[in-house]
Amino acid sequence: MSAPLILALPSKGRPKEQTDAWLSKAGLTVKAAGGQRGYNALIEGVDGLDVRLLSAGNIAAALDAGEVHMGVTGEDLLRERGDAAFARVALVQALGFGHADVVVAAPAAWIDVSTMDDIDDVAHAYLARTGGRMRVATKYLNLTRSFFAAKGVGDYRIVASDGATEGAPAQGLAELIVDITTTGVTLKANGLKILDDGVILQSQFNLAISKSTPWTTAQRRTATLILDRLGVAPSTLESR
Amino acid sequence: MRSEPRVPESVLDRIRAPFLVGPPEQIDPAVIQPLNLLLDLSGEAMRERLFVVQGENGAEACLRPDFTIPVARAYVDEAEGDALERHYYYQGQAFRMPPASGSKGHPSEFLQIGMESFGGGENAESQMAGLAWKSAMAGGRIDLSLRIGDVGLFAAFLEDIGTPEIIATRLRRAFTRPQRLKAELARAATRNPDAGRIAAALAGQATRRAAEAIEKRWADEGLEPVGGRTASEIADRLIALTQEASAPCLARAQVEYIQTYLSLVGDPGAVRAAVRDLVRGDATEQKMGASGFMLDALVKAGVPADRIRFDASFGGPFTYYDGFVFEITSAALGDGLTVAAGGRYDALLAQLSGKASRAVGCMVRPYRAWNGAL
What we know:
By secondary structure, chain A is an alpha/beta fold.
């Protein structure tokens, strides 16, 4: 049997529910295949397809590395992999769910701060006062760096954060954060506010394909079949 | 290209020779440097060029991307607060990730030779540029040129055209960052809209009363004072913003002067004449000197006059340079692949040592200087 097409889908939580709902609207049903741990699945009635259930972050990495042919993941996670990643991955369609903004947030108590220009000012004063640079907690190292560079803000440094980033300023681990937010409620609860010009990216889940992985004719045919069912123009595959 | 090909030993000897006159003290700083210190001193933008490594205890470190900060640290340790005069020569591998624009000509591991000079005298800058020139020329290229600039001259120019201090501070700070500088110029040309409602309400109040008002507002709105800035710090900035809003903004003519100044490039004599056309003031005159404007000193140090161009907008490769800066490029290699560079960085040393200091340095990349290389 020839190698199957590999499709990576979110493995849990809201993203999984929303992805399943989107697929079932097109009459595609994801079913767990073998093994109790449920990392593999299949879609009823589609042959030559191997569905992998992964976290959204791992899907972005797998698409970038060419380990899967297609995947559903957040645009933010792909963008964070740098501009060069878009030579290897193409966004095929925005899916209308998993909306999240990647934003710069500052303490709400800083009533004199509302823009990145203010941050530049305050960051400079911070450097002069402490000899250190203002800290930005985030897991989005690349997005943060390119956004701050585009705004011309230089006197800061990034503190890598892998979870509960919004708590970092209250814990004294950072002054600013760059993180995703949907409603802003969590930010507010942590004493933070979004800067007026601090929206880095309005992200949502996307169907994406790997441009770097080798595609066989059979895999292409399977992909075309799925895209057709989903109502996505298969030309996205031809033009690869 | 991951690592640079070797430069033949005989060529390396020639490139190294100018550095061995003196003789200077040789120094061999650690390859592994503390990451946080480097980022604090050179800025987050540096991170994308760094090889970050992690020790077993979890402390983040990086491979030295350059020798300036490692050597300055070693000097501060040695000097223990005394203003010793020291000249350190180094040779070793430095490590940088290739820039996002492409890795051609940017091996991640490369040889660097250089000198860092602390507490030196009057001609330290031109001597340093002359040293780098002799060393780079020894590589055999015939198409080198020396680009010089002066962060301090920009400051002097702003002073002489009567830029209000609060605006001059912002412009000086933005000097090495073109986008920021453009934004600050636009901002300085219009009345500042930042200082809004609250700032107006605080106008004329003493810091303490303003801080109390801020604390009351925090309490009223249930805001947690996270982020480490005190109410008085915020009050001080708001008061400064208010003053700025009521201070005169830059006149159109001043903005044009600054833009013209930043576009000046050419032989130092012509640039000096052009600066004088724009403004005749004590600060710029003092910086440019009575006659030489660095040109005489550079020629004396061995650089042919027709290879020198002054670029008024040039602030050096790193933001920590704060005076005279220079770089040597080859026409064949292009502007992106600097053969040698250096400049004055008094403030960086002051930040490390906690006292006023004088520091000038330069580095040469032998492989780029060698005419046998691609």
